[in-house]
Hints:
alpha/beta, TIM Barrel, two-stranded antiparallel ribbon, 14 helices, 11 strands, 15% strand
Amino acid sequence: MKYYLFHLMPYADLDLEAADKYDSSWVTLPNSFYDPKKGHLLYNRYLDELEMGDALGFDGVCVNEHHSNAYGLMPQPGVLAGTLARRTKNVKIAVLGRALPLVNNPITVAEEFAILDNITGGRFIAGFVRGIGAEYYSWNANPAFSHERFHEAHDLIIQAWTRTGPFAFEGKHYNFDYVNLWPRPYQDPHPPIWIPSQGSTETIEWASHPDRRYTYLQTFSPIAALQKYMKQYQDSAERQGWRAGPENLGWATPIYVAETDEIAYREAKPHIENFFQKFLKMPLEMLLPPGYLSLKSMQGVMAAKAQVSGGARDIDAVMASGMFLCGSPRTIRDKLKHFQKEVGFGYVLSMLQFATLPAELTRKNIELYAREVIAPLRAEEQAQAQAAAE
């Protein structure tokens, strides 16, 4: 397995009691709740936490894109990735990912990602998403065009990265007389592409097409949903003539590690409950607006995501469903090994800070996870590989 440190950069200083008067922490929560002086401290704290991933031997660190919410303060993830590009030396840096249907000029994404790829000398991973439903409210975008704008923007970016310019691009949503990307990407033909998703059937089939074979990431889902959608990707690949391996599958999930199961439970409880009950709070119609998904995908995603977006989700419920891993290093190691064996993913994107988890507990979580979960698992994998080779 490869181990990535994933961060949402939430507004951890949110006045939870006052914010509870609103039906969502997205789109409609007034920005008067945001204090720039606290934001200054949080951004620098969070960047320090991601830089710990480089010092502690993670394979990569991840930032992402969300808008108009307290859940994640990265409306422009390239800014944070650019900061990390110069402050890290070994980890890969993933932007997971840019919401392509919201962009009026996809060439700006091609340029931004090419710059990051050049600065890092090829340590960059490009993530493309359609954006969750709430983003379409914030950007006043029509979700019915989400799929076709995503595909067209993707095609334009890939051509900009791989074709010699200048050339013309003519589409339904984007038209350019002169596509001529400066700079070109450092990696040949372009950076690896990862596709995070809530489980859209169309996205899974598109990502698994043999022309793409993009790494598919399932985010914040119960284990039953994780198994379902990973198998769906594998089955789709097989139908299209190729076999998907662990390198094509990843899982993003919050994790908390402490000295014992009891300590981990006690320390994580208020903060993981704030994450699921407060920071993810939004009406279902905001998460999945009309036109965003096909009927088939809507039925599947609603069943899986009802546990994530609504209601009071306590720590026991999210642990029982597998949406949150919490415990001693041994417990976390055992769970990761079990789920990896059952599902077959090759990447674990561990969210080690969530909602209101304070700095001291976040640092402890990152350090314990790196030294007492990742290091022993790597040693075990290396021993197994050596034994198999002998």
